[in-house]
Design a protein that fits this description.
By secondary structure, the chain is an all-alpha fold. It has two helices and no strands. The longest helix is centred in the N-terminal third of the chain and has 15 residues, at 12-26.
Length: 64
């Protein structure tokens, strides 16, 4: 889910998220998993505000 920087803070992300969740509910999905880069605090705050929770932390190290 990517919202252009020109459309952020105008409710577009919330509308897209609701549409996505409604669609998944309509086809019988019970869970949604979303990946967010750890440094993307804006996205994490958005998802937390919409009742998403941390479930798994993936650690990463570049070795070359």
């Amino acid at each position: 889910l990517i919202v252009s920087k020109f459309s952020r803070s105008k409710g577009m992300g919330g509308l897209l998220l609701t549409a996505m969740e409604d669609y998944f509910k309509s086809i019988g999905c019970e869970y949604i998993q979303i990946d967010v880069f750890a440094y993307n605090e804006t996205a994490k705050k958005f998802y937390y505000k919409n009742n998403y929770e941390d479930r798994l932390v993936t650690l990463f190290k570049k070795i070359k």
